[in-house]
Specification:
Layout (H helix, E strand, L loop, with lengths): L26 H10 L9 E11 L4 E3 L17 E9 L10 H4 L17 H9 L11 E9 L13
Antiparallel strand pairs: 1-2, 1-4, 3-4
Length: about 160
């Protein structure tokens, strides 16, 4: 999500093809952006994210609703493998910023899996609630489930924008 640890494949926001959550709806759109930016996708990993509907503002959990500026037509992957749960900052309120687990090296102090992610939503929520990230990047914090997806399983494009 952020490029503190791994580079983003492109600055996709300048193409205004993201959805109201500031993510990309489908692998097809990723391929369009990669072509426009001359980025080769061979050897890259593809991930699918699901976001918990509330965010923690430092004091309490509040429902998060995206702005309706952009249409959201997420194409669900045919197959996905759960890798874990991440905590992501959204201080600007729009696009994802940093993961305290990787960007602030909190994975060195907290129990995480081989992917630098929590194994369960409950672990992510508990660590937010108990202040584990209070001296990290500014929130609010949102919890994402992170799934790996095989590029070969992305042929079904359903309702994605073209």
């Amino acid at each position: 999500m952020c490029d503190c640890v791994s580079e983003n494949f492109a600055d996709y926001t300048e193409y205004w093809l993201h959805n109201s959550y500031w993510f990309i709806d489908s692998p097809k759109i990723i391929k369009i952006i990669a072509e426009k930016t001359s980025v080769k996708l061979e050897g890259t990993s593809l991930f699918y994210y699901e976001m918990f509907e509330s965010e923690f503002d430092g004091a309490s959990w509040k429902i998060y609703e995206p702005k309706a500026w952009f249409p959201t037509k997420v194409v669900l992957p045919a197959h996905k493998k759960l890798e874990g749960f991440d905590v992501v900052t959204f201080s600007a309120g729009t696009s994802p910023e940093c993961s305290p687990l990787s960007c602030n090296s909190m994975a060195d102090e907290l129990h995480t899996n081989a992917h630098c992610l929590f194994d369960s939503f409950d672990e992510a929520e508990a660590n937010i609630n108990n202040g584990s990230f209070s001296e990290c990047e500014f929130g609010p914090y949102r919890v994402f489930s992170v799934y790996s997806v095989d590029w070969s399983d992305t042929a079904v494009e359903g309702g994605a924008r073209t």
